[in-house]
Amino acid sequence: MSRLGAGIRFRTLLEDEVIEDTLRQHSFEAAEKWLQEVCWRRYWKGWLEAHPQVWRDWRRRIRSLRQTLPPVILARAEAVCAAGSGVACMDGIASELTRTGYLHNHARMWWASFWIHVEQLPWELGADFFYRHLLDADPASNTLSWRWVAGLQTPGKSYLVRLSNIEKYAPGYLEGKQAGSECLADGAVRASLLQPPAGLERRPPPLYPTFSAPSAARLGMWLHADDLHPESGPLAGLAPATIAGCISEHVYRTTYRLSQTRIDSLRTVLRDGLERAAAHYGCSSLVLDAEDPVEGLCAWANAHKLSEVVAFAPFVGPIDDMLPRVRHRFAAAGIRLTLLRRPSDEVAFSFATAGFFPFWQKMSRHLKLSCQS
């Protein structure tokens, strides 16, 4: 249990750093399993970049389910989230999540399987529960992992929780919490047969430059939670006049219904990124508290008389969903928006065209070559 998820999620710690440090101390063969775990998030991101409709369909489906599900099912879903399922070990996991904002990966899979295959509740609402509370919640990893447990990401392959698996890897979840666990006995859980949505096609992911060209413009930098490490990579050599990141508690509460703990965590990591960036670039940085984050960014850019704003290209998710409005408002104000992507992301995403293990075959060859160069 590394507890590196949140650092990697927000790029306060880079996958590249973890991989490089690992391979300085261990052979590739000895560290391969660990390297796979480090690369899973990047694989999920790359896959979702080419299938953005999965994220958007999930968001639409959540809104629809809340409006159309029978009250008895919605009430059961709320009870299970509130640690009231009656299966004590699963309720302990739900309590741990809401109390700490963290779960071990095994616990995430067990609880998701319980929700889908035992409780037979819509996977979309379970994924929403995780997204609202996990401090390292990532649009790609969270959405696609839930689809995998449900048997939708790899059709015909569902993940089924087994009591023996919990007893082997996390017996602490069962200490004094045996009530109701008979429903998890080996062989008792049967897969819910869910129908994959039609029309899921891979699209060419967007291409972004991976280096910054010199610019005489009055430059501002927009820092956001998809990558909070501008002092390394293609943004490192720029000379911004000002740096800003935006927090919108209104959007977090009303659109995504995030827990207060999660909102506070987002504020903390953004402040950390802005402070490090200000020190690196030698300029001012500020957190924009705005009900509408797009309007907040535009007001900041206009107030500082910027002619260009540069940022890391966001990944599919909430920040990327804002981009059309950001582009429109900046263009109306005569401000150029330049988005860049890390070269290592472009490489990894180009490998994420199928399942994880075809991805890993290509990624492992790339990493081995990188070690030799």
Q: Keywords for this structure?
A:
five-stranded parallel sheet, Rossmann fold, DNA Cyclobutane Dipyrimidine Photolyase, subunit A, domain 3, 373 residues, alpha/beta
Named at the architecture level, the CATH assignment of the largest domain is Orthogonal Bundle
The number of helices is 16
According to CATH, the homologous superfamily of the largest domain is DNA Cyclobutane Dipyrimidine Photolyase, subunit A, domain 3
Mean pLDDT metric: 94
SSE ordering: HHHHHHHHHHEEHHEHEHEHH
What is the overall silhouette? globular
- CATH class call of the largest domain: Mainly Alpha
**Share of helix among residues?**
40-55%
Q: How are the strands of the largest sheet arranged?
A: 3-2-1-4-5
In angstroms, what separates the terminal alpha carbons?
Answer: 31 Å
Low-confidence stretches: none
- Topology-level CATH name of the largest domain: DNA Cyclobutane Dipyrimidine Photolyase, subunit A, domain 3
Tally of DSSP β-strands: 5
Percent range for β-strand residues: 5-15%
Q: Structural class per helix/strand content?
A: alpha/beta
Biggest beta sheet attributes: 5 strands, parallel
Number of domains: 3
Radius of gyration over all CA atoms, rounded: 22 Å
Structure description:
This protein folds into 3 domains: 7-50 and 354-373, no CATH class; 51-184, DNA Cyclobutane Dipyrimidine Photolyase, subunit A, domain 3; 219-340, HUPs (Rossmann fold, 3-Layer(aba) Sandwich), CATH 3.40.50.620. It is built from 16 helices and 5 strands. It has helices at residues 5-10, 15-25, 28-49, 52-68, 71-81, 88-100, 105-118, 123-133, 139-150, 163-169, 249-254, 260-281, 293-303, 318-332, 343-351, 356-372; strands spanning 219-222, 242-247, 284-289, 308-312, 336-340. Helix 2 runs antiparallel to helix 3 (28-49), helix 3 (28-49) packs across helix 15 and helix 13 packs across helix 14 (318-332). The radius of gyration is 22 Å and the shape is globular. It starts with a helix and ends with a helix. The model has no long low-confidence stretch (mean pLDDT 94).
